[in-house]
Amino acid sequence: MKQEFNIIAYSENNIGLLNRITIVFTRRKVNIESLTVSESALKGISKFTITVETTEEQVQKIVQQIEKQVEVLKAFYHTNEELISQEVALYKVSTDELTASNQIENLIRKYNARILEITKEYTVIEKTGHKDETQAFFEELNQFKVLQFIRSGKIAITRSPIER
Fold first, then answer.
1. How crowded is the C-beta side of 15, counted as CA atoms within 13 Å?
2. Element (H, E) at 8
3. pTM of the model
4. In angstroms, rounded to a whole number, what is the distance separating the alpha carbons of residues 123 and 54?
5. Which of 100, 107, 106 is CA-nearest to residue 141?
């Protein structure tokens, strides 16, 4: 049965590794839903957080293939329940729409979002949360014609006391 899994891999920061990791997914015909790479708590070590929708059997094979990359130190997979995660979304709306009524302001409060920048032409709003929260905010805000919208990849840490 397909479900959402989050693969976390720790590696040295080497040129071409991201390409080799994504090829693992391409060969197995698994789409990457979200991909985030950043430095980890360990100096010189990068942390990949990759979200996919597949079977547990398939994700186990993918993790094994990722670990075969020379620069990869260790890789794990987790369900959403095993992680604490967030995404960041940015929304650009017309400042005229914002000032025309208090409806956008009410939505910002309802969704616990915040305004990052206001110019004469546009206002940029930020919402941090899970994908369903940032999407719900987008759908309600879009009645005011969202000019631009972008959502980051998932960032996550494990609930277990040991980082893995």
1. 0
2. strand 3-12
3. 0.86
4. 38
5. 107
Looking at residue 30, its pLDDT comes to 97
pLDDT tens per residue, range 14-35: 888 999 999 999 999 999 999 9
- The CA distance from 46 to 120, in Å, is 40
**CA 112/CA 129 separation, integer angstroms:** 9
Contact predicate 66/24, CB 8 Å: yes
Following DSSP, what letter does each residue of 61-93 receive, concatenated?
HHHHHHHTSTTEEEEEEE-GGGEEEEEEEEEEE
Residues 6+ apart with CB under 8 A from 137: 89, 91, 107, 111, 113, 127, 129
Q: What is the pLDDT of residues 91-143, one digit of tens each?
A: 999 999 999 999 999 999 999 999 999 999 999 999 999 999 999 999 999 99
CA gyration radius, the chain: 19
> Which of 153, 134, 138, 131 has the alpha carbon at shortest distance from 93?
138
What kind and span of H or E run contains 114?
strand 114-118
